[in-house]
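Data card: per-record layout.
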Amino acid sequence: MEAQRPGAGRLAAWLGGDIDEALEGVGLPAWLVDRRGIVRWQNIRASELFGDFVGRPAWEGFAADSQEIAQREFTKKLLGTGTRSDYEAVMLSRSGSRIPVEVHSVAVRGGDRVVGIFGLAEAEQAVPPPLVRPLTPRQLQVLRALAAGSSTAQIAEALHISTETVRNHVRALLRALRVHSRLEAVVEGRRRGLLD
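The structure for this 196-residue chain is written out next.
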């Protein structure tokens, strides 16, 4: 008789680790969706690429022409006609651009019934649009400081410039990267290879 293997959560705890923390750090976007199709959890990578979908229907993250396949594959797992699926689709980035993905999802069981769906998406690297204008060396310094979590005052002190000058650099940085917030600037900077 074959011994039953311990689950990943139990084994991680036995090793002294945390599976939730590990899933947060996975380099692929990941989601946990409940039986109604509502996103209940997503990892950092999913937020960076696609935005925050927690509390929203999972298929809202898909392009209109891919919503049907996403719903169909979800329904198969709920009805028990398939426990896992791998399919190609198109999702929408935070900025609304189309990103081709390969979705890998599996039913999450609780006793005799499916309680949710866990999924990962392998995103093809979309070519970012060209910068409005190249970043200046000072804008790159400001971007790196933002990535390190520095405030406007901390950046000003570190670079020996006024806080208003920092704000001007941040505004120019946002325009050049075609984003609307400091967090989006950091995400876009990483996507473009401007940050380590």
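Known properties of this structure: DSSP finds eight helices and five strands in the chain. The chain has two domains: 8-123, 137-191.

See the next section for split statistics.
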